[in-house]
Amino acid sequence: MTEAGAEAYLLVWMYERGMAGDGDLAGTDDIPEEWRRAARFRLQRDLNELVRQSQLERVFVLRKGHLYRLTHAGQLEARRLLHLRRDPEGRQQHARNGLMSVASRASYSPTIELEAFLTTPEAVMLSEHLSPDEVRAAALYLAEQGLATVHEGDAQHPLQALLTLTQVGIQCAESPLSVKDFLMQNGHHPTYTTNIHGGTAQVGSGNTQNNTFGFDPAQFADFARQVLTAAPRVDTTDELRAQIVRDAAFLEEESTRPAPEPGRVRRALEGLTDTLVRHSTDGLAQYLYEAGRNLLS
Question: In 3-state terms, what secondary structure has residue 80?
């Protein structure tokens, strides 16, 4: 089961610290003491890994030793994570993954009480606790998808219900995939790609991508930022607007990696344009869709 780990917390903490005006340089002594105690055996390793990923830069300062600051790539990743933290669907995905992970590690059977789950680290998303309602909704979703059962029994409160993984749920928890990716891989959700013929985009399940296009990562990153800026003004539901934000943040992430891979950037752009085409009755979404399609051609 893939989860956001300590590295994600570090990036978000560094970003929010800078936005609060506390400076862009920080050392291990600046990190909250409670967090340092919890992460004392892995903190330096996580910092080194973020430096290796070019998301943090290490700077030596006289009389202070090694300090760290976010690189541009690190800032973009922190912004993506913050989008995810605010996004209701992103929070639901975190709750689903967390429930699966905790239940799979239970001592005697893959079972977790919802109220007990709320006390675990997996119920915290980038320093913010999930709400009881979010956990309850995630448990019911897992049951609907056949990954778990929810047993109410004689419980006097909904959070006293027990969630138990099914055999398929155990397979999901033991896989390296998130709940969302596991379900998609096993055909629970339709996937869409874009088929371009003579400048006309056709969206549908099973279509294939046959186009070629020039590759300038900066163009795709700029387009992603344009969509992120415009998303609040798109006339649509909150759920679909959140999907636009998620897709645009993912495109920004892929196109600003140290060595962007053209195929991954293309697929990220296709996912964003597929989302935008669902808003074709909205003028702004249509404009953004056409701009994205031009990048694909």
Answer: helix
Is residue 118 within 8 Å of residue 160, measured between CB atoms? no
**Residue range 3-30: average pLDDT?**
80
With contact defined as beta carbons under 8 Å apart, do 172 and 179 qualify?
Answer: yes
Q: How far is CA 184 from CA 1, 44, 93, 190, in A?
A: 14, 36, 13, 7
Report the chain's mean pLDDT, rounded to a whole number: 79
Q: What does the chain come to in residues?
A: 297
Residues 132/8/272/293 CA torsion (nearest 10 deg): 170
Question: Among 295, 284, 282, which residue's Cα sits nearest to residue 201?
Answer: 295
Prediction pTM value: 0.56
Q: What is the separation of C-alpha 79 from the centre of its chain, rounded to a whole number of angstroms?
A: 11
Using DSSP's 3-state secondary structure scheme, residue 149 falls into strand
> Cα–Cα–Cα angle for 196, 290, 76, nearest 5°?
105
The mean pLDDT value for 120-124 works out to: 87
